[in-house]
């Protein structure tokens, strides 16, 4: 009885930790599966059953035809879509917070439309639009579509940051001999930067793995998500898992580096 | 950028600010002489901060001109004015450390070697140790000193302070008042200080302008404003005043004889800011601490020539250094009297009949056409925190 009681007490005092670990496991399990199967050596064309350990795929990630081409295309699109959406979105966010203009309220709510609209519907309408314009489907149509749907996310992230910024800070900068450009570069931008960075990261992630809109607007061009989808019909090369794992590791590395830098800075400050 | 003879004068002429149909500041003329500590005092919304922001260039005047010394700056943007501001919430740059905050103005003017100057300035405000901390790691008082240092390091011709002590607790505020006064004497820069705290304005400033509803009600030295207010707003906003409605009876030499509730009161003509026609009305004022209180039984001992009022003690409160009495008198239902606790008369308890008397020289006269309650209670709720 005492034994059961002590277990109960232990569970009670560690409940948060246990729940947290379960949640973390739930979140990470898919990544673990992807990683494990990147070391598989499947018998057929499908990488669905574990056969034996091998690093073949890691040693030759571009070994599958068109894989690395599609990956590089996706990265290029994500890069330019991020730049486009971040620049435009940041400017829109500033305009919405700082200026009073006609239809400001309407713009404020319309900017959320791409977030609320079902992606398939949007994709189909975009295709209609592009076809009617006689546009050549490919890199540019994909890019235009990606900038469009990333925009609202950037606006939301940056707007929150701009709104929480004390307007007196800019007044103080102007009072201390900083002209409009200096004020923006030295005070406004650094303070809003975390919001812009968050918006940019979100835009990159959204653009990189978008499938639905891309599929409609790509024409004969093949991005990485489209390549994965396409190959899944015929067989899944292990290299897909390798790319996935690599992306995951790079992202984790980024986060860890950020944390280490942040911690070191904090420690220096308090020292 | 350094201060020269009259370079630190601030001259506002006909300056006003309107927002749509609301007038924040009515056309205003004001001269702040070089090297003085000038306070703009008033309740919130009286236009004092707007006036300050127009000097800084953060607000564009609807009319009028701003001069700094001989230079007209009305249309100059804030970053081209040799003026710096200490903001109400300090507005320290959160992404820069204390050193960089203080160095900001110097760097923007293209000065390369700032280290020595910044270190000296941080020493002046006793923050040398904190140079590499971020603003949020400092206490309110320290942040306030950083804000002062960040402005002062530029040796502006005029330093503008917008309620700089509002966020500090009472004890720290007292300390910072003396500190700011010391710094001002040391650097000799013109300070224009905006506050709603009458005590703060009186302790720190050489000259105080009392503002109300977008106008300067009265301008003068703290003692002058206190002893000789010209409007009921000033009389009530700065300290406490007892105001009695009276009728002009006659004149005798330099004094006006007034009738109030059957009694007679004397008022030096020089201390009356109202027109005094015989038979006309005047508000008679006297500060609570100028009044002596004598029990009605001893009324015979009161020297002749003093203004007298009879009444009954309604309430007393013992404050330590003084006792405050509220007297119910026929001329004024709540007459306040502060008596020093030197020799306390035990008979002066609620209900006792008393005679209030004071030297006529302490009486002041105001125009009876004003709101007798103007300025009452607008100060104390905030000042008492």
From TrEMBL, chain A:
Gene3D superfamilies: MetI-like. It is found in: Cell membrane. The keyword Transport applies. GO terms for cellular component: plasma membrane. It is a multi-pass membrane protein. Pfam families: BPD_transp_1. Its main location: membrane. The chain crosses the membrane at residues 15-39, 77-97, 109-131, 137-158, 184-206, 212-230, 242-261. InterPro entries: Bact_Polyamine_Transport, MetI-like, MetI-like_sf. Keywords: Cell membrane, Membrane, Transmembrane, Transmembrane helix, Transport. The keyword Transport applies. One of its GO terms (biological process) is transmembrane transport. Residues 71-261 form the ABC transmembrane type-1 domain. Belongs to the binding-protein-dependent transport system permease family. CysTW subfamily. This is ABC transporter permease.
TrEMBL record, chain B:
This is Spermidine/putrescine import ATP-binding protein PotA. GO terms for cellular component: ATP-binding cassette (ABC) transporter complex. PANTHER family: SPERMIDINE/PUTRESCINE IMPORT ATP-BINDING PROTEIN POTA, SPERMIDINE_PUTRESCINE IMPORT ATP-BINDING PROTEIN POTA. It catalyses: ATP + H2O + polyamine-[polyamine-binding protein]Side 1 = ADP + phosphate + polyamineSide 2 + [polyamine-binding protein]Side 1. The complex is composed of two ATP-binding proteins (PotA), two transmembrane proteins (PotB and PotC) and a solute-binding protein (PotD). Gene3D superfamilies: 2.40.50.100, P-loop containing nucleotide triphosphate hydrolases. Its EC number is 7.6.2.11. Keywords: ATP-binding, Cell membrane, Membrane, Nucleotide-binding, Translocase, Transport. It comes from the Bacteria. The lineage of its organism: Bacteria, Bacillati, Actinomycetota, Actinomycetes, Kitasatosporales. SUPFAM superfamilies: MOP-like, P-loop containing nucleoside triphosphate hydrolases. It holds the Pfam family ABC_tran. Part of the ABC transporter complex PotABCD involved in spermidine/putrescine import. Responsible for energy coupling to the transport system. Belongs to the ABC transporter superfamily. Spermidine/putrescine importer (TC 3.A.1.11.1) family. Residues 10-238 form the ABC transporter domain. Transmembrane segments: none annotated. It is an enzyme of class 7 (translocase). It comes from Streptomyces lacrimifluminis. The keyword Cell membrane applies. InterPro entries: AAA+_ATPase, ABC_SmlMolc_Importer, ABC_transporter-like_ATP-bd, ABC_transporter-like_CS, Mo/tungstate-bd_C_term_dom, P-loop_NTPase, PotA-like, PotA_ATP-bd. GO terms for molecular function: ABC-type putrescine transporter activity; ATP binding; ATP hydrolysis activity. NCBIfam families: potA (TIGR01187).
């Amino acid at each position: 009885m005492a034994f059961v009681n002590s277990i109960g007490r232990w569970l009670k005092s560690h409940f948060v930790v246990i729940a947290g670990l379960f949640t973390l496991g739930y979140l990470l399990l898919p990544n673990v599966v992807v990683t494990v199967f990147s070391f598989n050596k499947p018998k057929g064309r499908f990488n669905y059953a574990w056969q034996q350990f091998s690093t073949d795929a890691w040693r030759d990630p571009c070994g599958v035809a068109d894989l690395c081409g599609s990956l590089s295309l996706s990265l290029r699109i994500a890069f330019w879509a991020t730049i486009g959406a971040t620049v435009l979105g940041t400017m829109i966010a500033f305009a919405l917070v700082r200026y009073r203009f006609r239809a400001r309220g309407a713009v404020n709510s319309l900017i959320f439309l791409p977030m609320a609209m079902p992606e398939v519907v949007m994709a189909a309408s975009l295709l209609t639009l592009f076809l009617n314009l006689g546009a050549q489907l490919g890199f540019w149509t994909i890019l235009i579509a990606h900038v469009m749907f990333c925009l609202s996310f950037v606006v939301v992230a940056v707007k929150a940051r701009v709104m929480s910024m004390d307007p007196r800070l800019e007044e103080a900068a102007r009072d201390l001999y900083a002209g409009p450009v200096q004020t923006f570069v030295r005070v406004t931008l650094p303070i809003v930067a975390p919001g812009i960075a968050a918006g940019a990261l979100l835009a990159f992630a959204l653009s990189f793995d978008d499938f639905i809109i891309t599929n409609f607007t790509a024409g004969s061009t093949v991005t990485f998500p489209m390549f994965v989808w396409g190959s899944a019909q015929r067989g899944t090369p292990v290299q897909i898992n390798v790319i996935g794992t690599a992306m995951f590791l790079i992202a984790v590395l980024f986060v860890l580096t950020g944390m280490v830098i942040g911690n070191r800075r904090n420690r220096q400050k308090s020292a | 950028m350094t201060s020269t003879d009259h370079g630190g004068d601030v001259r506002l002429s006909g300056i006003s600010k309107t927002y749509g149909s609301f007038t924040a500041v009515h056309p205003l003329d004001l001269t702040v002489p070089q090297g003085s500590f000038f306070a703009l005092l008033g309740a919130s919304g009286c236009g004092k901060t707007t006036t300050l922001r127009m000097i800084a260039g953060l607000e564009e005047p609807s009319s009028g001109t701003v001069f700094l010394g001989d230079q007209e700056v009305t249309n100059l943007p804030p970053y081209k004015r040799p003026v710096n501001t200490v903001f109400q919430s300090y507005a320290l740059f959160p992404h820069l450390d204390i050193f960089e905050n203080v160095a900001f103005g110097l760097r923007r003017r293209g000065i390369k070697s700032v280290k020595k100057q910044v270190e000296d300035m941080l020493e002046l405000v006793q923050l040398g140790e904190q140079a590499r901390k971020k603003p949020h790691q400092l206490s309110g008082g320290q942040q306030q000193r950083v804000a002062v240092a960040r402005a002062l390091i530029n040796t502006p011709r005029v330093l503008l302070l917008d309620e700089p002590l509002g966020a500090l607790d009472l004890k720290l505020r007292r300390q910072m008042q003396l500190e700011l006064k010391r710094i001002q004497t040391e650097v000799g820069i013109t300070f224009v200080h905006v506050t709603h705290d009458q005590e703060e304005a009186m302790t720190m400033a050489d000259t105080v302008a009392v503002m109300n509803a977008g106008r300067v009600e009265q301008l003068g030295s703290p003692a002058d404003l206190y002893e000789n207010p010209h409007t009921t707003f000033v009389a009530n906003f700065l300290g406490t005043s007892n105001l009695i409605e009276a009728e002009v009876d006659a004149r005798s030499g330099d004094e006006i004889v007034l009738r109030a509730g059957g009694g007679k009161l004397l008022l030096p003509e020089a201390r009356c800011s109202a027109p005094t026609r015989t038979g006309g009305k005047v508000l008679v004022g006297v500060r609570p601490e100028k009044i002596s209180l004598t029990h009605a039984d001893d009324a015979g001992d009161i020297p002749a020539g003093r203004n007298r009022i009879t009444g009954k003690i309604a309430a007393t409160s013992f404050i330590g250094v003084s006792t405050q009495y509220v007297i119910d008198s026929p001329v004024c239902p709540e007459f306040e009297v502060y008596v020093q606790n030197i020799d306390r008369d035990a008979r002066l308890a609620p209900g006792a009949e008393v005679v209030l008397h004071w030297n006529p020289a302490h009486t002041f006269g105001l125009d009876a056409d004003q709101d007798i309650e103007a300025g009452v209670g607008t100060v104390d709720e905030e000042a008492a925190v």
